[in-house]
Design goal:
HTH-type_Tx_Regulator; Tetracycline Repressor, domain 2; mainly alpha; Arc Repressor Mutant, subunit A; DNA binding; 2 domains; DNA-binding; Homeodomain-like_sf; elongated
């Protein structure tokens, strides 16, 4: 007979599975992360895994959306507490550092990520798309801030800045300092 979990145990196990997934995904990628190892780290059987997630892909989808939501919420708080373009600069720096910790946030053009996306249900793919749109709204939906340039161009610059993380290993100088320098010097050109 299968053991039942208390609500507290369920919450802890689900959190442990998500954290193990996040760490393994960052280190090994989607394909090399396996459910058996995640279950061992969470202290449950493989059969019990399916009490929490319908599939490996549903866990990955939840982790990706959760991390994106956390990053957006933290960045949004920074923007709200500093209601000027310098708050946006600080939010961008925070986002960049989170991307640095979680490479799966920016490796969407990798074969590994494509394999994951191909295995997602339509609903899961839509959830990821909606999650991706949150960050765009973070910069477009600020009534107290006005772009100096076309909004599409501004969003392209912001996206390009953040995606520069893909070049971090080939830069001759510390990539975080480089990013901060670029943000500090571009923010006046983006916002009034």
């Amino acid at each position: 007979m299968a053991r039942s979990f208390t609500e507290r145990e369920k919450e802890n196990i689900k959190n442990n599975l998500q954290e193990a997934c996040k760490q393994s995904w960052t280190q090994y990628g989607y394909k090399k992360t396996n459910v058996d190892d995640l279950c061992k780290q969470a202290g449950i059987s493989k059969g019990a895994f399916y009490l929490f997630f319908e599939s490996k892909e549903s866990l990955f989808c939840e982790v990706l959306c959760s991390v994106q939501e956390q990053v957006c919420n933290i960045a949004s708080e920074v923007i709200k507490s500093h209601k000027d373009k310098y708050g946006v600069a600080e939010a961008l720096k925070l986002i960049y550092r989170e991307y640095d910790k979680n490479n799966f946030l920016y490796e969407s053009d990798s074969t590994d990520f494509t394999i994951l996306m191909n295995k997602l249900s339509e609903g899961q793919a839509k959830k990821i798309e909606e999650s991706n749109n949150m960050s765009q709204q973070l910069f477009l939906g600020q009534s107290h801030l006005k772009f100096k340039i076309n909004a599409d161009l501004a969003m392209s610059v912001i996206y390009s800045l953040i995606m520069n993380i893909k070049n971090k290993d080939i830069l001759p100088h510390n990539h975080t300092e480089t990013f901060d320098f670029m943000v500090d010097h571009l923010i006046d050109s983006l916002y009034e």
